[in-house]
Amino acid sequence: MKFNKLFYTLFSVLLICTPIVAQQKNADQMTKRAKNYVFQQKDKIGKMDKVLNLKLTKMYATDRTIKVVYAKSNSNFSAMFPEMTEGKFKTEAQENRYVARNYCIWRVATDAIASASLSSVVRNDVYTWFVDVVGPEGGEPLYSFDFKTQAVRNAIELCGGKMPTVFKDYLNKTLVERALQSLLKDVYLPHDSAGFCNVELKNQKLHVDLLTTHRGYPIMKENNGDGARTAWLGSFMRLSRAKRYFNDLLDVIRVRQLAVEIKLRDVDNMADSAMFMIYPKEIIDYAKTPSVSETQIEGYIVGKLGGQKQERVNRGKFIEQHGPNRLRAAVAPTSKSKRVYEVVEEMPSFPGGKPAIIAYIAKAVKYPGPCLDNKVEGRVICRFTITRDGAVKDVTVTKSVDPLLDKEAVRVISLMPKWIPAKHNGERVDAKYSLPVTFRITENFENN
User: Fold this and answer.
1) pLDDT tens track for 260-289
2) pLDDT digits over 159-178, tens only?
3) SS in 3 state form for the chain?
4) In this model, does residue 13 exceed pLDDT 50?
5) Residue 169, Cβ neighbours under 10 Å: how many?
6) Beta carbons of 291 and 272 less than 8 angstroms apart
């Protein structure tokens, strides 16, 4: 009997200890792989990083952490990618921290895809990268940041499992995702009987708590929540269509499979609630439908049903039969519009692309004498319309540097040769376009 008790006790101890030993062995293996990855980066220590213009000075791994130190050539801050990040951050230090953090994530994600051992670490373990950027004399970091393996997995997911070979392409994706997260939280339902209670973006799902009055609750709830879902989609499209990166927003939604969960409640009966989902494909499909207002749709339904009274009685059945997308297509004007588009399927382009634009501006610009004498430099950003026949018109300055430089930038852009016009729904359309004109004094200007 004593022998049996002793046997069972030993057996129980073995059962408990075996998983612990296995976990420890696995952790040791992951640490070994992480340290091996750091060892493989030893050739980069002391060399200037060509993308960030920062020198990698330290990189070492311990259990669950990897420490990285970069050195700046000076302690002054200047925008790393001003053409992409301008106006998106309060300070250049904040901007640089964001860019450097995403560069490190991009680099680790790229290495993980290429290396089976690092991929195993990123996929299966929780490691934290701690990064400091110090000045030329060392000392306290100018800025610091950290990220975990989850951030690396998110980066790979954001890019559909294949990281861009150029960092700027990945940076653009992160900036669009950052804008999308802010945009989603700003969506407002312009409905006389509905209002937000709470909005939270979590785990690739936007949770929306929506309160309605007792009068509006049945309308918003009927037909699988078509009222609430259509109202949210319409509001989101009104906000996002105005963004130049609208198509990129849709790409992020498609890749990340972002869904919206709407919880609908009656303010007079809080216990009664309904939940409806909007799936990524619905958002993408809705974006392809013509842009019309809810008022236009309402008027169309009233007209078809023969008045307000009939509309109130038969609205739900009518929408169910026709579907919101078909309704929007029916209301959309069929004649050619004089509208100037902010977002189009195919943006206008200059013959020869960016190199041709740079060559034209360099040849056409005449540096104003007073600005040359006073060494006034900067970047003027102009906004203008490319008409459906490719002409440039309505040039305005959206970011000014100096009145004389502004005037010269407007003159140069106004005299540009014809562009390849934008296309939308297969037709040429008028579209807005922004272009920076950089004024920088060189030896050629000074000598002339």
Assistant:
1) 888 888 777 766 788 888 888 888 888 776
2) 878 888 889 888 888 888 88
3) CHHHHHHHHHHHHHHHHHHHHHHHHHHHHHHHHHHHHHHHCHHHCCCEECCCCEEEEEEEEECCEEEEEEECCCCCCCCCCHHHHCCCCCCHHHHHHHHHHHHHHHHHHHHHHHCHHHHHHHHHCCCEEEEEEEECCEEEEEEEEEEEHHHHHHHHHHCCCCCCCCHHHHHHHHHHHHHHHHHHHHCCCCCCCEEEEEEEEECCEEEEEEEECCCCHHHHHHHHHHHHHHHHHHHHHHHHCCCCCHHHHHHHHHHHCCEEEEEEEECCEEEEEEEEEECHHHHHHHHHCCCCCHHHHHHHHHHHHCCHHHHHHHHHHHHHHHCHHHHHHHHCCCCCCCCEECCCCECCECCCHHHHHHHHHHHHCCCCHHHHHCCCCEEEEEEEEECCCCCEEEEEEEECCCHHHHHHHHHHHHCCCCCECEEECCEEEEEEEEEEEEECCCHHHHHC
4) no
5) 12
6) no
- For 8-36, what is the mean pLDDT? 58
Percent of the chain with pLDDT over 70: 75
pTM over 0.70: no
